[in-house]
Design a protein that fits this description.
The chain has 85 residues and is an alpha+beta fold. The chain has helices at 10-22, 33-38, 45-58, 76-84, and strands at 31-32, 61-66, 69-74. Helix 1 crosses helix 3 and helix 1 packs across helix 4. It starts with 9 loop residues before the first helix and ends with a helix.
């Protein structure tokens, strides 16, 4: 994936950065959606939730449904891009 072709919205950039930090920039860490959303302001949580879904569609994060809810982990491409933001 060519990182120069990716144009992220402000919400997507914020979601990617928060996800990367929450996962400690590791591809192997899975974090619950609630943990990620708790790191942003209350009024922005709906937009960040949509941005996480968009990042999943772009291949920058992976969604894992679990019994307790949805968990996310960041891909290698997502980590590379998060360092550039």
């Amino acid at each position: 994936m060519d990182m120069s072709d990716i144009d992220l919205t402000v919400e997507e950039q914020t979601a990617l950065k928060v996800l990367a930090e929450t996962c400690n920039y590791s591809e192997h860490a899975h974090r619950p959606e609630e943990t990620i959303l708790h790191k942003v302001q209350t009024d922005a949580r709906g937009d960040i939730k949509k941005a996480l879904k968009s990042l999943h569609k772009r291949g920058l994060c992976i969604r894992h449904p679990t019994r307790g809810g949805m968990t996310y982990n960041i891909t290698r491409e997502g980590i590379t891009l998060a360092y550039r933001i």
